[in-house]
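Lecture 7, part B: from sequences to assemblies.

Below are the input chains for today's worked example.
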Amino acid sequence: MRDGKNNGRNVFSGAWARDIALSVPSAALALLFCAAVLWLLDPSGAGREIRTVLFPFRADRDAAARLSRTVGILTGSVPVVMCALSVLFVRRAGMLNIGAAGQYALGGGAALYLATVLGMPWWAALAASVLAGGVWGAAAGLLKARYRVDAVLSGAVMNCIASAAVGAVLAPAAGPGGAVPSAIPALRLGSLFGQEWTITPGIPAALLTALGVGLFLSRTRFGHEIRAVGIDGGRGLYCGMREKRVLVLSAFIGGALAGMGASMACLADPSRMRLSDGSALYAAACGLTAAFMGGQGAAGASLAAVLLGYISDGIGEASRAGRFASVPAFREVFTVCLCGTLLLLRTVLSGIIAGRRAERARREPYRSGGGIQKTKDVQ
Amino acid sequence: MTDFINTLGIMLYATLIYTAPLLYAALGSCFSEVSGVVNIGIEGMMTAGAFAGTVVAYFTGSPWIGFLCGGLAGAFFGMLHALATVKLGADQTIAGTAINMLGPGIVIMIGMVIFNSTDSAPLNASQKIPKLFTGVFDTSTVFGRFMDNVFATYASTYLVFLVALLVWFIFYKTRFGLRLRACGEHPQACETLGINVIVMRFVCVCISGFLSGLGGACVTMAISTQFRPISIVGQGFIAIAAVIFGKFRPQGALIGCLLFGFCSGLKVVLGGSSGVDMQLLSMIPYVVTVIVLVLFVGKSHVPSANGKPYIKTK
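Predicted structure of the full complex, as structure tokens:
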């Protein structure tokens, strides 16, 4: 509000409203597209499968089963939330963290190597995964900052290197024998609906990390520098910010978040300590989509990640009951496909709006009562 | 000496067959990048082409129809990318990334319906792209064996060098090529001359998708015998790196692809003869790609309007 007028602005013209306005129709259209694909793949059972994808809780008969599914969805969403936060963090510095898959794979690989091969405690494995992911992320940041290598290109190639490296290190080490690996201890919630409940500490850890990332980016000096460099590195330079340092450090933190997400998933259950081929790709693809769906904030990205986890759980449930029960990785493939559609629609809608804005700005080169306007964050 | 010549022949053979898919994709990338559209989605288009080529060849029994359909599948995703970025003004990098997720996702799901598995059925010898010059050289002599090792290769490998020549001719000797390059350098000036920049870029991205699709089909129909989700892993990005190495020129991209093809061939030859872990050897092309990017990114002349969405003046 200026001079008693709101200059055409209202509470619904904020960045969050724009993000919701872009993400909700994109998500709806993407779900519609995937429903059509399901119908094409399996015309007879498509109706039931689509209902299961949208409302997975329908199959649960009692409150205990619903609570169990909720815990399962949240547990499955932890690596996606961490990857979303990783992509968001790096994106605020002006880079697209395509390399999250590699950072996730390397983090998970390091954690598994320490926990299963060297028999080290879970906290050491967790620290190693954070460090491995961070260093791999920082390498991509360094390539961008020092040599101006496109972060997308270097990230994609580094994903291939990380995947091969993890395979080379972990494959010979895999096999029976050795000590029982140390898993992250589960949190006991107590008795409810006549049974004892435990959750993985990944859930509160992801929540706290989201809160921390949000506060860090919005309330700290370095967070301000990251956002400033993301908007315009050149201008940041004239304000005394060291662009290269900011890029490398933000890439390190982003990589560390992805690596931490991997260890949260790998070290949660001692009986399932492995890193499957598609898990890194799945977590990174969902994380990337969630980071764009959720807009500029950590809360939005985390909520979008949980939403994707919910849909993915529904897809898994539908595939178990449908004709794809025998097909491995159907849930992951279908979710990645959904993410691709969503991301494409989101960026198309964003492009259309940006084009209209540019056209409007060109028609109105001078607007009265302007004054200094706050620079909008990059989309 | 005989062993050395044999190994050299196998090395050259491996270099040529691994260069072919990269070169198809790199030539496609040249079309897109030079016209001013960043096409990160090459990888997804290659995957679509790899799948479509294999499936069509499997059901029709004709490798050439399969090869063409591989190109058309890539062109379909190219059209999707062009629609999003050129027509609707979407962010080119993010749209390309989305194509990289969408392309493999869709084709793997179609594969699940057809084959009830993520892998396709293997092609037999008559369904694969035929080899040329087999039995032409006398393999009883060292020189004949060397020639047979090097030149008795797939028709798609010979075809790609002809395509490279054709692309060079289109770029530098035709009116279309001149307009294409102008669209990537100064689209506003093109518009002043009456060139429809939107149509030019749209066509170029579709051609890019078509050539990438051919590259993908080349992988599954010549190098291997079936489509698997890991058939295309990073080749699209390596092709883009080859274009950067070649300073956005088809002849430069050819040299870049030969370099990366050599690295991929090295992986195969060393994998067979040395005791080094195959996973570690598979890193060679990617590590070389990173080195090439570091050394050559700053020295490339990027088309001035590359990556910038063009809004037509009203």
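Note for the exam: Chain A touches chain B through 56 residues (CB under 8 Å). Keep this in mind when comparing with the next example.
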